[in-house]
Amino acid sequence: MRLLILSDTHIPRRARDLPARVWEEVDRCDVVIHAGDWCDLASLDALERRAPRLLAVYGNNDGPPLRHRLPEVARAELGGVRFAVVHETGPARGREKRCAGRFPDTDVLVFGHSHIPWDSTAPNGLRLLNPGSPTDRRRQPHHTYLTARAADGALTDVELHALD
């Protein structure tokens, strides 16, 4: 399964739409994972229409209409890999240990909120991924998103993509 991993799109506050390159990735993937802070119900509707499958949560900037349609935590097994998605994980310090305790039956935790790309592994093997943001880089050098593959119980080809 080819995965597109997004977070913190902040539409229309930070951009009118997702970058064209991200939409191209949507068309090539099997699953879009979005870790919250959509800010716009229309962007959720657009991704639901275009993505073959969407695994998504709401973020702290998402109001009642988005919270009504999306969970705080989403879980799915994709390609034999157990995923959990959440918006916030708290401070960077101690993140791996904290998340390993909170998500003990998970192989990969996708999160957002900080707009800072993150890829680490907790002592128990939990992989933590934050794709950054394709529309609001904050203090990062680039807007970013992730792609990966999940098959036969393994996550492979995890790649951070920088947008101009």
From TrEMBL:
Q: Which InterPro entries match?
A: Calcineurin-like_PHP_lpxH (IPR024654), Metallo-depent_PP-like (IPR029052), Phosphodiesterase_MJ0936/Vps29 (IPR000979)
Superkingdom of origin organism: Bacteria
Query: Which cofactors go with this protein?
Result: a divalent metal cation
List GO molecular-function terms, semicolon-separated.
hydrolase activity; metal ion binding
Which terms are listed as keywords in the entry? Metal-binding
Q: What class of enzyme is it?
A: hydrolase
* EC number(s) per entry: 3.1.4.-
Q: Is Oxidoreductase among this UniProt entry's keywords? A: no
Looking at the keywords, is Metal-binding present? yes
**UniProt domain Calcineurin-like phosphoesterase: residue ranges:** 1-150
Family annotation (Pfam families): Metallophos_2
UniProt record similarity statement: Belongs to the metallophosphoesterase superfamily. YfcE family.
Q: What is this protein called?
A: Phosphoesterase
